[in-house]
Amino acid sequence: MDSPYSSAAYTSQTIEDQQARTIGDVLANDPTVRFTTSAGHLYENYTVRGFDISSSDLALNGMYGLAPYGHAPTEFVERVELLRGPTALLTGMSPSGAVGGVINLVPKRAADTPLTRLSANYLSEGNAGASVDIGRRFGPDHAFGVRVNGAYDDGRTGIDGQSKRRALGAVALDYAGERVRASLDAYVNEEEVRNGSAWMASFASTVPEPPKAGTNILPGTHGRLDNRAIVARGEVDITRDWTAYAGLGALNYKYSGFINGTRANNVRPNGDYTGITYNQKGYTDTVSAETGMRGIVRTGPVEHRLVLGYTYLGMRTGTVNVASRSFLSNIYDPVTPILAASPGNVVKTSDTTLTSLALADTLAFADDKVQLTLGVRHQRVQAQSFSATTGARTADYDEGAFTPTVGLVLKPWGPQLALYGNYVEGLSQGDTVTDVTASNYQQVFAPYKTRQGELGVKWDSGRLTQTLSVFRITRPSLIKDATTNSYSPDGERRHRGVEWNVYGEATRGVRVLGGIAYTRAVLTHTANGAYDGNTAFGSPTWSGNLGAEWDLPWVPGLTVTGRVTYTGSQYVNTANTQKIDSWTRYDIGARYVTKIQGKRVGFYASIENLFNKSYWAGSFNDGYVTQNAPRLFKFTTSVDF
Questions:
Q1: CB contact at 8 A, 174 and 154
Q2: Which DSSP state fits 140?
Q3: Which range among 49-53, 374-378, 435-439 shows the weakest confidence by mean pLDDT?
Q4: How far apart are CA 203 and CA 624, in angstroms?
Q5: Closest CA to 616 of 608, 628, 633, 604
Q6: Residue ranges covered by each domain of the chain
Q7: Which of 124, 145, 397, 463 is 20 to 30 A from residue 514's alpha carbon, by CA?
């Protein structure tokens, strides 16, 4: 209620109740979030308010570059936080320059009550596994804590003939003293897919019917992701009003196989297409750090809540990519594809450093009935690119930008109702003109600024919490002027929207979670005006999620659940010549939590995509779409010892 932004937080209880294995499973509750990767993909990429967020843009405990790539597992996550819209002041620039919002993972900590929980799970069509969650606190005042999470599963997926293996090990240590707090998190996460890969499709003319959900059009493909990370954080109360903090972490990420880019090109109405596969190998080594101070200064009736922070993110990446010869196949009756050869040695292809300094002051008046936030961040972007074949440097970028923020929260009628507004900016690395025929060849542009204005109201009635917001976001892009033969960052797309989000207890024993989003994403300035007024590809005008659960009064501990997800029609390409239909998905489930011989035992079951519908789900990039996942049965049993 005190934040001038639209946000949501999904707890470990929600994760457990919904058997959510990945962050994507969690964010499937949110009407402002949609997905740009298909079933069977090794990555989970998202859109928030119509703008892309890749799995590389997830934050871990507020720090970029340290969350797992691919399907980030939920077993070691206490809370998934979503902040909608650009957030340059709060977090700095994300690794890929995403501006749709921030997805932050808060790792688990040991609670005062000892925990030893074992779980067994099963997914159709034969993927089974187990997980463990152990937490203990010890020492004077239970100041020291340790939390251990592990998970392993393997077996067939809903994609015909595909199998998947997943392994997680995570340890969280923390110290909670009177004036000093510290934590150390470490995890290893592995994910492997065999005999089948994600794919995306472009269309030769009209949009054909999708194949049956779960059709494996790329048998024989495979891929693997490995993440290893360690993060240390600490804070010290210098005085009653001032705290100093610091964090330092490192991540090593490696991948190999048919990870992405594999596609069905120019699918004809009868399903015939020309295919190509990509065999990849690469790595990302990341170091992330932050330090700063936060405190309170009082000037008469005004309380200033100050934050001064510095962030550092260094990322060194290497990749090699081998493409296959093209082949002919059919999405309804696929043949064995031609597989690209194994890539050679990986060499460094990029070296990026993001540094920033931020200062923010929240001025609180009249017993917090008025809270005004003023802030600014300076972001520096240093990026070098190197040839994958020769190792020679091919690009050198070093630019900076200031991003201001203003936020206001008003509570004129008490703490239950808050009016808020904000102006905030997001940053993306500016382009370098690489067209050798352009009059401004090799010109380097400063980081692009995405600008948002938002107004909203939050209402906490005690049982239900609701947020209604309206926003306007503009994002620049590089376009070419045919008259001057030069490029400029004068392209623009504009998103205007209205969102309503709700969670809580609608009536005794009945809880709801969801909302509705209306987003009008328009290309307002394109090269020579060719597409001015068109709708941005992959941007549904309407989307909505509504989940509900009911505690059956005549069977204590038994809860039935359901969820409806709707996504409106979407244009496939910038030219707006192709369009995919709207779709609706229904999920149902039940859980029963009881005690057996004094031990808590939980039984969970659910069915996603109840009617096993097949549809084109969303747009991956300009001209390409992805398909939905087939019907999925999920079962979990957990026991506390």
A1: no
A2: G
A3: 435-439
A4: 8
A5: 628
A6: 7-640
A7: 124
Q: Can you tell me the mean pLDDT for 372-387?
A: 94
The domain 7-640: what is its CATH number? 2.40.170.20
For residues 86 and 449, what is the distance between their CA atoms, to the nearest angstrom?
A: 9
**pTM beyond 0.90, yes or no:** yes
Overall average pLDDT of the 546-555 stretch: 97
- Residue 602 identity (one-letter amino acid): G
User: How far is the C-alpha of 42 from the C-alpha of 165, rounded, in Å?
Assistant: 11
Instruction: Please enumerate in sequence order all residues whose Cβ is within 8 A of that of 274, keeping only pairs 6 or more positions apart, or say none.
Output: 264, 265, 266, 326, 327, 328
Asked whether 356 and 92 are in contact (CB, 8 A), the reply is: yes
Say if residue 75 is preceded by a cis peptide, omega within 30 of 0: no
Query: What spatial distance separates the first Cα and last Cα of the chain, rounded to whole Å?
Result: 38
Q: How far apart are CA 154 and CA 182, in angstroms?
A: 35
What's the one-letter identity of residue 215? T
Q: What is the C-alpha separation between 467 and 456, in angstroms, rounded?
A: 7
Q: 504, 465 in Cβ contact below 8 A?
A: yes
SS3 for 33-53 is: EEECCCCCCCCCCEEECCEEE
Q: Is 14 helix (H, G, I), strand (E, B) or coil?
A: helix
- ∠40-44-46 over CA atoms, to 5°? 130
Please tell me the number of Cα atoms within 13 Å of 424 on its side-chain side: 28
Residue 178: CB partners within 8 Å, gap ≥ 6? none
Rounded average pLDDT over 542-559: 98
In degrees to the nearest 10, what's the CA dihedral of 291, 289, 382, 404? Answer: -40
Number of CB atoms found within 10 A of residue 299's CB? 8
Write the DSSP assignment of 166-182 as a string of letters.
EEEEEEEEEEE-SSEEE
The answer to whether 470 and 456 are in contact (CB under 8 A) is: yes
| DSSP string of 257-274, one letter each residue | ES-S--EEEEE-TTSEEE
For the chain, what percent of residues have pLDDT higher than 90? 87
The yes-or-no verdict on residue 441 having pLDDT over 90 is no
Give the position of tokens 């976001």.
473
Strands (E), 195-277: 200-203, 222-237, 242-257, 263-267, 272-276
Return the pLDDT at 442.
Answer: 75
The rounded distance, in Å, linking the Cα atoms of 613 and 631 is: 8
* The pLDDT of residue 471: 98
The 3-state secondary structure of 53-114 reads ECHHHCEECCEECCCCCCCCECCCEEEEEEEECCCHHHHCCCCCCCCCEEEEEEECCCCCCC
C-alpha 448/C-alpha 477 separation (Å) is: 8
* pLDDT (0 to 100) of residue 434: 77
Q: Which residue has the tokens 């542009």?
A: 445
Q: What distance in Å separates the CA atoms of residue 447 and residue 426, rounded to the nearest whole number?
A: 10
